[in-house]
Amino acid sequence: MRFILRRLGFYLIAFWASITLNFLLPRFMPGDPVSRMFARSQDRMQPEQIEALRKLLGVDDRPLWEQYTDYLHNIFTGQMGVSISRFPTPVTEVISSQIGWTLLLGGTALVVAAVVGNLLGILAAWRRGGAIDSALPPLLVFIGSFPYFWLAMGALYLFGVVLGWFPIRHAFTDGLEPAFTWEFIGDVGAHLVLPALTIVLVSIGGWMLGMRNTMIATNSEDYITMAEAKGLRPGRIMLRYAARNAMLPSVTSFGMGLGFVVGGALLTEVVFAYPGVGYQLLNAVQGLDYPLMQGLFLTITAAVLLANFLVDILYVRLDPRVRSN
Amino acid sequence: MTTALLKQPTQPTAVRKPNRSFVHGLLSNKKALTGMAVMLIFIALALLAPVLFPGDPSRITAMASLEPSTEHWLGTTAKGQDVLALTVHGSRSSLFVGLTVGIASTFIGILVGLASAYFGKFIDEALSLVTNVFLLLPGLPLLVILAAFLPPGLGTVILVLVVTGWAGSARVLRSQALSIRSKDFVAAAVVSGERAGRIMFREILPNMASIVMGTLLACVIYGIGAQAGLEFLGLGDVSTVSWGNNLFWAGNEGALLTGSWWVFVPSGVCIALVAFALALINYAVDEVTNPRLRKIKAPATPKNIERSAAK
């Protein structure tokens, strides 16, 4: 319980740090991005909306601490201002309409990469020097050297444009009504394959090598020898005895890997014009939409922190040593 | 991150020569040689770019979207620029930013890591907290929001990449420095009254040279990749020629949809080759300088061979 509380405290500090960063950035940056933004979009806005945005982004004469408490209050009551590029939709509305797609893409990619990568790692360590062990690691590391978005571009070009196997942009076909029908779900699935595949390809190597290296250490433990001496089936020893104990570092990397997947998903979404938060972030950047940018950053950060906290709870369930401390 | 995971357990060599010099070790390591050869080629290309392709590489020299030919080895972009010239000139900015970011973030990592390990207690707690927060904040969104608020330019790109990149190296270096801090010779130095700075930089730091080297290489890889990502989003200095910007323009001008694969393939392959070469050198440094790594893994090997032979 103390472990969980300590971690919770840490995540709260991290979240507070990102809010404060968000608060300070527009206020202390050289130059004035905010007035640039106003200059671009002033004619479309109501005076009171401009006033609210000025407060949000710090073009404001009040003392700093007063602005800060105001800002904190706004964040925790969910007021992040209105989006400029999708004026006059509130930022929270824009984000909530798109975060689902990112969760779908990132979640699918993360789970597939983690499961397949760990299984490959288990097999590689179990048969040291075998086909999987000698051929895959260098190949995967080489693939992992490519930038996420470049592999996405390659996949889009090869499978989307040249071969035409998969749709090349958006999350579902234009004009199709979102509904729980097989047609729609199939369509979403087809649009998901390429973006997810590129993230899986780049991140799978890390999973596999991490698992393989821990498994190799676990394989030399006495209880593995004992299990063999008892005459247990090799498959059972591999999965129940060795892999199970080698799993803990992978659980930790699952939390850490999330940040990378989010980053990867952002770039991949941009390439495929996939309507998630990453694509929206790029639009916000191009449209000088600072309120939306800030809202997206906070949302993504909160999601990553929350996921890490869940992983910590899982870790306590898996590792009794943490509980006894 | 993946680089740290690929500590290839080396095959148990018949005779291990003790105390081989570091340079000699690297020079007789196949991975290191391959990696260094690739890096030398790229550095040479970067230095010779103004000689090989004089003039502004982004000027329009030919018809738009030409396929690779004898005249334009890698074809031309949708604007009619020579892709080969763009790629070769792009290496200058990419390697420069990568190296600068790598050196700067490793330097910060060394300072933070050494201070944490040497002073301990409150300073360690505070520094570790900051490090962990930076490690946890999702890197790319942070990059994007920093770059969006700062005035555009090469300096901004470097600053932003250092801000997001130092934490990883600080954590690795701290744990290494901690283990050296607890050694007797450091205690002896403390007792004999040496100054803190001298102990950190003359006693502890030289003993973690290989880790510093590994971190530096990982940071350079990070720098090159993250710069490309940032520029691909249009957040770099769009006026410079670099691999990331080449890819940004390729995407912007619809090279994918018109089937001009020659526009986006070269820059991506260059980034990957450089990253892979640096990773190879990194593994080689591990293998050469870290006998402990081999000792732990070596006993596992014969047993495993028996096991797979028994099946």
Short description:
The complex is a heterodimer of chains A (325) and B (311). Chain A contains 13 helices and no strands. Chain A is mostly helical.
Q: What Rg of chain B do the Cα atoms give?
A: 23 Å
Percentage of helical residues of chain A? over 70%
The averaged pLDDT of chain B comes out at 79
From the N-terminal CA to the C-terminal CA of chain B, the straight-line distance is 35 Å
Please give the structural blueprint:
The complex is a heterodimer of chains A (325) and B (311).
Chain A: H1 2-28, H2 33-41, H3 47-57, H4 64-76, H5 91-126, H6 131-145, H7 148-162, H8 182-219, H9 222-229, H10 234-272, H11 277-286, H12 290-318, H13 320-324
Helix pairs in contact in A: 1-12, 5-6, 5-8, 5-10, 5-12, 6-8, 7-8, 7-10, 8-10, 9-10, 10-11, 10-12, 11-12
Chain B: H1 2-5, H2 22-27, H3 30-52, H4 83-119, H5 121-136, H6 139-149, H7 154-181, H8 184-191, H9 196-204, H10 209-232, H11 243-252, H12 261-289, H13 291-297, H14 300-310
Helix pairs in contact in B: 3-4, 3-12, 4-5, 4-7, 4-10, 4-11, 4-12, 5-7, 6-7, 7-10, 8-9, 10-11, 10-12, 11-12
Describe the fold and architecture.
The complex is a heterodimer of chains A (325) and B (311). Chain A is mostly helical. Chain A has helices at 2-28, 33-41, 47-57, 64-76, 91-126, 131-145, 148-162, 182-219, 222-229, 234-272, 277-286, 290-318, 320-324. The relative contact order of chain A is 0.14. With 311 residues, chain B is mainly alpha-helical. Helix content of chain B is 72%, strand content 0%. Chain B has 14 helices and no strands.
